[in-house]
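Sequence in, structure out.
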Amino acid sequence: DAGVGATDTDEAVVKVLRRANKPVLLVANKADDAATEIQAASLWSMGLGEPHTVSALHGRGSGDLLDRIVAMLPAEGHGTSRAGGPRRVALLGKPNVGKSSLLNALAGSERVVVDSVAGTTVDPVDELVKLGDRFWWFVDTAGIRRRAKEASGHEYYATLRTQAALDRAEVAIVLIDAHEPLSEQDVRIIAMVIEAGRALVLAYNKWDLTDEERRHYLEREIDRDLVQVPWAPRVNISAKTKRHVDKLPVALDVALASWETRIPTGRLNQFLGELAQGNPHPLRGGKQPRILFGAQVSVGPPTFALFTSGFLEAGYRRFIERRLREEFDFTGTPIRIVMRVREKRSRR
């Protein structure tokens, strides 16, 4: 603060910066007039070189400051690029399900704050974590209590930031509290990942707190409530004791490999032909829609375009998806199927 001068807290920060052995630029803010700029000269005593006066309120001196920052940057950086670099993983789940504890367990140190009070994490926290001989970008997100349109205040914006973090990720680990019954919110978070088209791994946390009876009922809950994601890899973990945490990278690799799988067009059409011959679409109104041609138009997630002679019912599209998974093993990734119905040509 150019008007206040160096405080004891500033001096303590200077000591930390000197130990870091990094280039330091001293900036004196709130220099709104010439008189305050003169007062900022007292900051020379901090031993960090010339204080650069700026006014964040009015933008005064910001251009010169930016030029100085650019001049101090090295020609080549030594950091890790996110584009084309480590895979990006979003940690999702209800509040207090153990997302921050899992991130600390993976990192092997206290990277993020952990507390028994739900809602400790509000903003997404990005951490570069080395597992084995590889780096991963993990994003610890805020716990989602309810739908964004039903949330209010900071919960609403925390939900939006969590959605944005999911959109930037390639794969999501959805943490579920194995000690408690599956909730509607667990199912909704999984549906959010599928809608975003991201690879999915289910991690049942707090496994150390479950007994045989609870595990029996959990299996029944999974069969009843998570019937739409039997393809998602499942890992039973304990972030507190680090039980089976080392199995998560294996599940992530499997999900990402499926997420980026591409089926050759010839092989796909051979499969579709055999499928339609063995299980044709039911007759509707005396007509039977046929699949004329198919192609995989994209990966991440795998998306298939089917050119048909008529509308394929939702049940038949689900049948096609199930058979695709059986044939090509899309473990850990959603599959999208879009239709292109051939328009009838008018007779001349």
